[in-house]
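Re: weekly structure request thread

Next one in the queue (268 aa):
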Amino acid sequence: MAPLVVPMITGFNLIFGGLHLVYWDSEGGAAALRGSIFENVNMLCSVEMLSNSHKHLSWLAVVFALLLAASTTTAYAQQGDPEQPVVVQPGAPGKPSKTLPPDTTGKLPPRAHADVEFMQGMILHHQQAVEMTALIVSHTENKELRTLGARISSSQADEIKFMKRWLTARGEPVSMSMEGMQHHAMLMPGMLTPQQMEALRKAKGAEFDHLFLTGMIQHHNGALAMVKDLFDTAGAGQDAELFDFATDADNTQRAEIRVMETMLEKKK
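Done, posted below.
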């Protein structure tokens, strides 16, 4: 911590940095008194240290210096361990900030029920996309489609992990009840029907490529609709992590839709 410098009317300077004083002697040189302040009282008050014309003022200066040093020592002691973290809560506009106890911990923002349903539903949605991409290796030799499928599979698998962590951190189940799963599977936008999935499994080569691309475009558009529904729901989507995730997913899937539409155009 930088020393505190206090000019004295006698030509003394008190520098408090730890426990030492510095004074200016009659010759203009500086001398340091180290160790305990009170151990150096006699030296500070020494007649040889003071000019004859300033004895009275210098005595007052010494008393002032000792009082100031004692009060500063008390202030440092009250600050406690300098290594202890300081937690500051910024005040509202026009209001002062508050210093909180060192053991203060952050709290997750309140969540809307729609946030939880969105995450649970999107996990199911993503799982079907991963299931679709798993068919690519055994159903087509199209290198462009294989590259796209690997990218979709990797990104959606990572997003599934994130959504599960988000739910777990908030004490929510990572999956819906069986009844809820069946209900949401029927209503979830973009999900391929059992008939569509069966047709995809049976297709090979160019037919598979076409069914996969049209099916995944449908699937991605459904995810975009789910994001829109989330943000259209009052009070939902306010969680920072959820907002960032949903926004990123929206941007990524829009870009992938454009890629798949271009691939379909090439096949015409």
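The chain has two domains: 4-79, 113-266. Confidence is low (pLDDT under 50) at residues 1-57, 73-78.
Next request, please.
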